[in-house]
Each structure stands twice: as structure tokens, then as C-alpha cells.
Amino acid sequence: MNANYGHIFYSPTGTLQITLNGPGCYYRKQDYCKMCNYGGNNTITLLNAVQFVDDAIKQHPQASRILIGSNGSILDEREISRSIVSAALSRIHDCSIKDIYIETHVNTITKESLKYLKSELPTKNITIEMGLESSNAYVLQSIINKDLDLSIVRESIELIHNYNMRAALNVIYGLWYDEASMQADFIDTCYWASTRKADEIIVFLLHIKPGTLVYDWYIDGKISPPSHRDFIEILPLINDEVLQKMYFSWYGEREEAINSDGIIPPSYDDLEQEKVMRFYYDFMRSSSGSERSRLIYQFIHNH
Ligand code: SF4
């Protein structure tokens, strides 16, 4: 598999993430967002995309869901052509995995783009995964420089539901200078997402990556990596209904990327990494909010 065409990540919980190498995020290039620094180049072609997706699926026959993205928004034609996306989706259409996640910017959600997805993947359960990060205007503007209209996020969720698809919002824990504000922002954002009817809240623990605005804050000594302990200890403040919608990404499972990209990960403090990973894994494998609540209390009680 040629790494220039994209990258593959298989999560222990069964998600096969396929990222096609497009030219990079339009919003980043326009300086409308300085959140993630995915990078990007133009190397993928239509034929490469077919081969790349086929190889990824073949290598991970145990996967239970696929997340497909580019280095930004896979539904943004300024970033990646529809012919390449269609070629990749045709291979996903033909595979046996039913649950498909599409990673894209909220501004790309239109009737046309949703109809397009339905026509490409008519037999799949489609979830659209979009970056919210925070529901706080100060965090969006000043800490990550993300130009996001929250009313459009709400409208996009409604539109996605009208097409019988699910909506997932990415939320970040760790975007503030001090612990109390960080925690309050995270809890507010999770409830904001849930009351706007997001079906899934995908929680990212902040990893501080070179090339992002947060990294500049870090270099200036104004922001620190979050702590797993602090994060887990605020989870009892979240009700079962919201807990049931949570899933985790970048919770410590991506050591290879962290090491190769000079990323500063969250801290484990006095906790054993293996036990923290086990907690996140069990949480995601459990089926109900009440069971997840029980796992949180058990972990806090034992550590
Ligand atoms: S978070 Fe989304 S919009 Fe912002 S730079 Fe990354 S891919 Fe682009």
C-alpha cells in the first residue's frame, strides 16, 4: 500500500479509518480554521483510490465500520474531485461493512451532497461526522481560529436526519487555559450537541500538534496538554443519555502518529496507560449510558 495515497488506521474498537490524500483543507488554506493541520498533497488519482480502499478493506476483514475522509472535507469539491470520491465509495459500496462514516465540514452538507451520498451508498447506514470542537464562540475564534456558524451546525443535523442518516459531532476536551474552564466548556459542548440532536458525540482529547494555533499557545506557555485523570473525573457530571452517545478518538490509541508528528499527547499523571486504555475500550464496547456510568464510577473508585 502506497503511503503517498493516504493513510489507514484500524482502531481496536473496530473502526477502519481510510484517509485519502487530497490537496488539504480548504478552510485551513483560507485561514478560516487552524485546528488540526492534517497536511495534504495531490498524489491520489482515481485508480489509486480504488486500489487504496480495496487494500485497506482486505487488510482489515474484522472491521465493523469504515470512516472515510480526505485531509479535510471529503464532500468539498474544492479539495477532492467527485470522480475520485465516487471511485472510493464504489469500493465501499461493494464491501460487506454496513456502517459508514463520512468525515466532512458542516458547510458541505446540502441536499445535493446528501442525495449524492445516498445514491453512492444506497444499502449502507451512513453517519456524517463533522467538526464542532466547542460550542463556545471564544474558544472557536481565539483558541483554534475556527470560523464556524453554530446555527449551520444545527440546520445540518436536521437536514442529515431528513435524509435518514445519522449526525456525529467531533468535540474536543482540553481547549482552554485552565482546568475549570476546560471542563465547563467540554460539558457545555456535549450538552449543546445532544440537545441539537447529534446522534453521536465523538470526543477527542486534545493532542497539541505543530502547525496549529493551540501549539502556538503551548509554546507561549499559555496552554498545557489535558490530563486523562481530570477528563475521566468529570464524566460523572454527564448524564446517561449523553454518555450513551459518546465515542472516543485520539484517546491514546495513536502512538505511531504522535511519535512521527511531534505531537504532545494528554498526560497520564499517576495512572497506568494500559488501565486508562482499557477503560476507554470498555466504555466504547458497552451498550448503555447506565453501564457506562457504572464503568466511570468503578474506574474512579479504583484509581
Ligand atoms: S478541523 Fe476541519 S476545517 Fe479545521 S483545519 Fe482541520 S480539516 Fe480543516
- Note the quaternary state here: single chain
Instruction: Write out the distinct hetero groups bound to the structure.
Output: iron/sulfur cluster
Order of helices and strands: EEHHEHEHEHHEHEHHHEHHH
Distance between the termini: 42 Å
- Note the overall shape: globular
Number of domains: 2
Number of helices: 13
Radius of gyration: 19 Å
Structure, described:
There is one protein chain. The chain is an alpha/beta fold and 303 residues long. The chain has two domains: 1-123; 130-148 and 162-303, no CATH class. It has 13 helices and eight strands. The protein has helices at 26-29, 46-59, 82-94, 111-120, 137-143, 150-162, 179-195, 213-219, 228-234, 240-245, 255-261, 273-285, 289-302, and strands at residues 6-10, 15-20, 65-69, 99-103, 125-133, 166-173, 200-205, 246-249. The protein has an eight-stranded mixed β-sheet with strand order 1-2-3-4-5-6-7-8. Helix 2 (46-59) packs parallel to helix 3. The chain is globular. It binds iron/sulfur cluster. Residues 25, 27-28, 33, 35-36, 38, 72, 105, 131, 146 line the site of iron/sulfur cluster. Iron/sulfur cluster binds next to helix 1.
Task: Please summarize what this structure is.
The chain is an alpha/beta fold and 303 residues long. 44% of the residues lie in helices and 16% in strands.
Task: Produce the secondary structure layout.
Blueprint: E1 6-10, E2 15-20, H1 26-29, H2 46-59, E3 65-69, H3 82-94, E4 99-103, H4 111-120, E5 125-133, H5 137-143, H6 150-162, E6 166-173, H7 179-195, E7 200-205, H8 213-219, H9 228-234, H10 240-245, E8 246-249, H11 255-261, H12 273-285, H13 289-302
Parallel strand pairs: 2-3, 3-4, 4-5, 5-6, 6-7, 7-8
Antiparallel strand pairs: 1-2
Helix pairs in contact: 2-3, 12-13
Bound molecules: iron/sulfur cluster.
